[in-house]
Write a structure and sequence with these properties.
Two copies of one chain form a homodimer.
Chain A: H1 10-13, H2 16-21, H3 36-45, E1 47-51, E2 56-58, E3 66-72, E4 75-80, E5 86-92, E6 97-98, E7 109-112, E8 116-122, H4 123-132, H5 134-160, H6 163-178, E9 186-188, H7 193-200, H8 204-216, E10 220-221, E11 229-232, H9 235-242
Antiparallel strand pairs in A: 1-8, 2-7, 3-6, 3-8, 4-5, 4-7, 9-11, 10-11
The structure holds a DNA duplex.
Chain lengths: ~250, ~250
DNA sequence: CGGGCACTTGAAGTCGATCAAAGTGTGTGG
DNA sequence: CCACACACTTTGATCGACTTCAAGTGCCCG
């Protein structure tokens, strides 16, 4: 069972005017498509929000009143079955969007994995947002299709890969995301083993056992004191394992 | 192993001018956001394509030159592992989009499950499409977010549900899709058991066994001659099963 | 120092996979 | 029209990967 600290409502966490003055909004990923003056205008209708690690940001079936852009930190999305089984559907990083949806309600829970800073767009402003900044809609579409492709990759993982292949796939993906440099081989995993398990459709025990197996095979190394740091010893071979070649 | 008939290249299957004259494009789901004159204009840059059941429409890593809209019929999307393991990531129905993506290449294979008719937008026209018809982009975004929510639901299924729960979930979803009427209880499944298996992350044998179990429990009925027709005897209880309540 | 939490490791159990065979419906050619 | 082949489905028996249950370890923090 997961314990979640009570989440702040977005507006509590920071005074709205302060947030805009401090201009963290400028660092939202919207700057990829908007120029400086547009970002200034954008900051009129958005504000910054902070959540401490472990806090609930949105919950399933809660009215979707905000669209968030992760400014920094990491967020996990998950769905639950009535009996408590949990599937983490994604880890969100800087620049990712949270709350992009059709319906009235969020289709998932979102929890801050680390301390996070979010750029928060009230939903009623969203339509205005689209009118004022046409580019935004195309940008969101691009983001959404990208996520869709990732989701399909994940379905392949969950439906057809073995435990070892799943963890290898996960590590390779994290490695790619965290390093521009092709050769870099260090990964930092801010989430617990049980989060990795719920992301990969496994149990913590299995994740732990597979980590041990990968260590024994000299594919990775894990300093015993800092279990959240992984060193990949053989990227090529790990990649092969992730695709079932081995 | 799956045998796939050689797909036609889009332009072979029908004479372009004929397709537009026959105005099947008018029946593409874009009509949900465009008025008649806009649809006429749209049909200038799109054309109709037909594929016979079993034929390959697009394949993974093939250059994504077209965006398709399913006019009628059914399409399956899937990804493969090097050793042949297959995961079907979606069944597309009337109005669904095929080929909405960021990259240069399709991230999946698409095969016609039934005879299908597609509305085909060449990619170079797509940008023009967005400029001329601003509404289209918002429409695509809506479609994409909807698909994203479905993908997350599927991850929960693949990562955390039992075989019985998966099949029940699948049947309930098909029932909803095929019937406006809440009370209707007939489902037609154009795909084979092995397709259902590859969609649910199971084997054909397991799918078959679970069907037998559901029959024995009087949750469904399957006429022995028409295995593609399913009658749901107890929707409420099947729904409970799909959520792990039972 | 001790309690708690995350993680690891071990032993036993189970669900679905695999292997094998039989059943069912369809189409084809004699 | 029947017989045979083929493709799909079902059923049965066995197997194995991952889960479950149960200890045990190490680390942090009061």
């Amino acid at each position: 069972m997961i314990t979640i600290k009570q989440g702040n409502s977005p507006l509590q966490s920071k005074n709205k005017e302060d947030a805009c003055d401090g201009c963290p909004v400028r660092h939202s990923s919207f700057c990829e498509v908007l120029d400086k003056s547009e970002m200034d205008k954008l900051s009129q209708i958005t504000h910054s929000v902070n959540f401490k690690a472990g806090h609930l940001i949105v919950s399933e079936e809660q009215d979707a009143n905000y669209l968030y852009n992760i400014v920094n930190g990491m967020v996990e999305l998950y769905k639950l079955l009535p009996d408590g089984r949990r599937q983490i559907t994604g880890f969100l990083h800087q620049g990712d969007l949270l709350g992009l949806l059709v319906g009235e309600e969020y289709p998932y829970h979102a929890v801050a994995l680390t301390d996070v800073e979010l750029c928060c767009v009230p939903k009623d402003s969203a339509n205005k947002l689209f009118q004022d900044f046409e580019k935004i809609e195309g940008y969101l579409l691009k983001k959404a299709s990208h996520e869709l492709a990732e989701a399909q990759e994940r379905m392949l993982l969950l439906g057809r890969k073995t435990a070892e292949e799943r963890l290898a796939t996960f590590l390779i993906a994290q490695l790619k995301r965290q390093n521009k440099d092709e050769k870099a081989n260090e990964i930092h995993l801010p989430m617990m083993r049980s989060d990795i398990a719920d992301y990969l459709g496994l149990t913590t025990e299995t994740v732990s056992r597979v980590f041990s197996k990968l260590k024994k095979e000299r594919l990775v190394e894990i300093p015993s004191s800092e279990k959240s740091n992984i060193i990949v010893l053989d990227i090529k071979r790990l990649k092969d394992v992730s695709e079932g070649l081995s």
